[in-house]
Write a structure and sequence with these properties.
Number of helices: 9
Strand content: 15-25%
Oligomer: single chain
Order of helices and strands: HEHEHEHEHEHEHEHEH
Number of strands: 8
Bound molecules: pyridoxal-5'-phosphate
Helix content: 25-40%
Low-confidence stretches: none
Largest sheet: 8 strands, parallel
CATH superfamily: Alanine racemase
Length: 227
């Protein structure tokens, strides 16, 4: 289907009802699922339109784009989720607007986030590939990284974030995240959130227990040039 079909409002309501249908089909309560609209590469004006349509949670993956956008939208009560690879030297800038960082994948980043002493919710990003360049902690490093977050007063560990790899059935990939979540909860019982599922695979993610979906193009339409 053409991602650009219809108006923003139509696409948003279509995705909302598809998410609700997927939840009901999985025997889940749709209100237990938060849809984060990924607005990367789109202008602040689009984020403002989304807020007027009732969107409360937005996701961005690059500080250099998100910072100026968030600064223009300070009057809105939005929750900004940072979902991209994050260098420790950008942490201060990201904490200006983000109340959630979903892409925490290494001890040095945990330390930088904690050192700011600003309350922050974090998700550990799980790498589902064998390529360390993809971002995310390898499954065998999960508990150790979790312990480090738990040791910080400023950080609240919410759960796991993951992107389904190309070339794997998304449902199988999300099942692996769910299994990792069971391991995580042995060291962090409250960290039960699962951020997984994007425009092309949110139904599979809901079926595997996603609590947070990160949906871009199905709602925003195709992204303008990445630049
Ligand atoms: C861009 C992005 C998304 C949204 O992708 P769509 O396919 O446009 O829905 C979700 N998660 C992450 C980490 C992203 O970078």
């Amino acid at each position: 289907m053409n991602e650009d079909s219809g108006t923003l409002e139509e696409r948003l309501s279509r995705v909302r009802s598809q998410v609700a249908d997927a939840a009901v089909e999985a025997g889940r309560d749709p209100s237990a699922i938060t849809t984060i609209v990924v607005t990367k590469f789109h202008p602040a004006s689009l984020v403002r339109e989304l807020a007027a349509l009732g969107v409360t949670d937005v996701g961005e993956n690059r500080q250099q784009d998100a910072g100026p956008k968030a600064a223009q939208l300070r009057d809105l009560a939005l929750t900004w989720h940072f979902i991209g690879q994050l260098q420790s030297n950008k942490v201060r800038a990201v904490l200006e607007y983000a109340s959630v960082v979903q892409s925490v994948d290494r001890a040095s980043l945990v330390d930088a986030l904690g050192a700011a002493r600003i309350p922050l919710q974090v998700f550990l990003q799980l790498n589902l590939t064998d390529d360390p360049g993809r971002g995310g902690v390898a499954p065998d490093g999960l508990e150790q990284l979790a312990e480090r977050v738990l040791a910080s007063d400023a950080l609240t560990l919410r759960g796991l974030m993951a992107v389904a790899p190309l070339g794997e059935e998304p449902r199988a990939a999300f099942a692996r995240v769910r299994e990792a979540s069971e391991r995580l909860r042995r060291v962090a019982p409250d960290a039960d959130a699962l951020s997984m599922g994007m425009s092309g695979d949110f139904r599979e993610a809901v079926a595997e227990g996603a609590t947070h979906l990160r949906i871009g193009t199905a709602i925003t339409g195709n992204r303008p040039d990445a630049g």
